[in-house]
Structure formats: C-alpha cells, structure tokens
Amino acid sequence: MISQPKENCQHKNEPSLLLSPDENRLLFTLLGKSCRSLATAVVQVFLSEPPQHCQWLKHCCGVACFVKDSTRRSYFIRVYDMDKKKGAWQQELYLEFAYKAPQPYFHTFEADNCQAGLNFADQKEAHLFQKAVNDKIQSRLQNTIEKKQTEKSYEVKSTQLKITPMAPKNYNDLNMYPVKPKKKKKKNGSKKISKAEIGMPTNFTHIKYFGFDPNTGFHLCHNVDGHLKEFFSMAGISEKQLQDNSTYTYICNFIAEHGVVDAVQANSQPKRFSKLI
Does the UniProt entry include the keyword Lipid metabolism (predicted)? Predict the structure, then answer.
C-alpha cells in the first residue's frame, strides 16, 4: 500500500468547528490556490449605519476566514456565502489595524468606510479567530520596529564612516594649505612713457666737449680752448690719468656740474679755478 504524503502544516487551512469536512473543503476551494485561512468561524457581519454610525445594521451571514493572500502579499478578513459559494464581504488589514473584543462572542474593528462587527456563533471559534488576527498584528508591528531600528543603525554607521577634513589647530598648521600668491598690480606711476609724449628739444646750444678713445684715453675735441688744457695741468691731471675710464667719468661729471668750460674761457688765470678740483 502506497502512503499518501502528509500535508505541510505551514500551508494547512484552519477549519471551522461548526462545519462538516465537506463544507470546509468547499470553503477552502473558494479561497484560491495562493490563499490560506489562518482561522475560520461562522459569523454574522454587522456594519455601522451612516452618516452618524451610531447603530449596527446586519450586513450578511456566512463563514469568516482570516486569509493570508500570497499573491497580494497581504492579510484579509473575508466572509463567504456558502449558499451562493462566493465572497460576501472583506476587509484588508492596514498598518494601524486594531482588533477589539468588547464581548467574547462579538468583535469589532474599523473598516474602510465604517465600523464593522463580527457576531460569532461559537465562542471558542471567536477566541481562535481573535488570537490569529492579533498575533499577526503584533508580528507585523514587531517587524516594522525592527526594520526602523535596522535603518537607523545603518544611518548611524554611514554617518560615522564619513570622513571630514580637520581644521588646522594653530597658525603654523596653515602652512599645510598653500595659498597661491596674488599678482601685484602695477602702480599708476610706473606707466611707461611713449615716444609720442616726448616733446621736441628747445634752446639748443652747442658746447665744447671732451672725447674718450679706448686706445688713447681722454682728449679734447673740436677746437677746445687751450686754457682748458692748462687747467688740467694746474689741477695735476696727467694724460695717464685721463686714459683711465673711472677718472674720465669723474672729470666729465665735475666739468658738467661746475661749468668749468665757461669759467676757463672767461678767465685766463688758471689759478682762480684750482679750488674747483
């Protein structure tokens, strides 16, 4: 005899205590392949009367199933009409869903558009149904808390791993951050003068001058008055000294600054100019 494989308990539907096995099997076929009933009970469904919602109105009778819908990845309270073999009413569990039991046989919760109440035919079924719903509410709440804690912990670790540059502790540390030198702006007074800004010469007069040859040294040029040569002699300036470049430069500057050429021409006595040297 070949034994039949046992049904996995995790995928087993919880039957109603008031229904026969055939009725339970029929009910489970109405759920669909991707759905499983975690609790099953015979109930009456009451909804609050709009707009004040202060009175209960009987909506339908049937079998309530607390369904895990794997396709929609959610949980539902679904009520099935066994005579019509179809669903009569449902409510999805939302994030802040609260399931209350003001009476052991009468449970209430807030539906999408009104208050809903389940009046159970059997008090034991009512207890099993309440436990299944509240266990799932607590499980989802715990998962939400753990997820938030994990996200918070990840954010803290990510913040700690961020590297921020340290500010220098003192002035000497500023040398670690080189600064490019600024380009100096040219002063207004350093502007170059163009040729157009230079005027023509005025009151030009030709004067006698000295020349210097690298081979022969210092010499008088172009009809230099003979008294100037006598002046060099009286001043003790030899021809050898005149051949020296530095001595030549000094004599030129001295003659130009003191007007020696004009003085020599105006006075024939060299003794009067010996004090100029």
Answer: no
Give the model confidence (pLDDT) of 81-128 as tens digits.
999 999 999 999 998 999 999 999 999 999 999 999 999 999 999 999
Task: Decide which of 122, 139, 156 is a domain's last residue.
Answer: 139
User: Domain limits at 63?
Assistant: 11-139
pLDDT (tens digit, 9 = 90+) per residue, 170-195?
Answer: 545 545 555 566 666 655 555 555 55
Contacts of 194 (CB under 8 A, 6+ apart): none
- Please choose, from the candidates 12, 60, 7, the residue with its C-alpha nearest in 3D space to the C-alpha of residue 35: 12
Could you give phi then psi for residue 76, rounded to 5 degrees? -140, 150
Residues 107 and 20 both lie in one domain: yes
Query: Under a CB-based contact definition with an 8 Å cutoff, are residues 228 and 264 in contact?
Result: yes
Q: Is the pTM of this model over 0.70?
A: no
Query: φ, ψ for residue 38 (rounded to 5)?
Result: -90, -20
CA 86, CA 195: separation in Å to the nearest integer?
110
166 alpha-carbon distance from chain centroid: 17
Say if 146 falls within a structural domain: no
User: Both 17 and 125 in a single domain?
Assistant: yes
